[in-house]
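Hi U.,

Before I forget, here's the chain from the pilot set. I'm dumping it here mostly so it's searchable later in email.
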Amino acid sequence: MIESKDNWNYSRSLLFAYAVPYFHLGLRSSLPVSKTETIGVQVVNGWNNVRKTNGGVTIGLTSAYVRPKYTWNVNYYVGPENQNTQKGYRNLIDTTLLLTQTSKFNAYINYDYGQNRDAIVASNAEQSHNDKLLNHWQGGALAVREQVTSKSALAARFEYFADPQGFQTGTGVGQDVKEGTATYEYKWTEWLLARLEYRRDWSTIASFHKGDSNLVDAQSTVTAGFVAFFGPKR
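Structure:
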């Protein structure tokens, strides 16, 4: 979810930050094909773009299967995402199983796999071959949430993200990143939430800042925040 009030935790997940795009610009449609399933098609300007430099579009195919105790969403995106060329395609599959076992307890399992093939920019056969590098990444998440009282809730999340080429994290060095988060939520009113959160991130390489110049392979954060919602009463 983009809207902070609809997230179970205060901080964003690793998969939200690295595995999938933040936003699209384009067109989308959906069609219920049965009482339980809705499918859709999207034509968008790629990943995090209002305009693209290569003129190509990304196609998205979506499916939402809804039952009383669970919802299964699957999204697939494919299109050219390299700068100034339509060569080299990016593929992403994103799937989430949301479990709604009771009115107070929910859980979800999320898995993402993506790959991006480099563009071929050289005419020389040897250089062209060397430029067909396939970058790929994948990750999984497990989260649970319990509505303790009408105003209080507890949530926990664990994630694992693998980026062998350092493509999505932008480091250029392969790494595996994990994080664990625990969040307490208190609803003051229909329009105001307070959240207190502890989060621990760790990686196989030193990639977290400590001070002005040092990098370490793990970090802990404690966050207290408020989420205000402006809109019609639900």
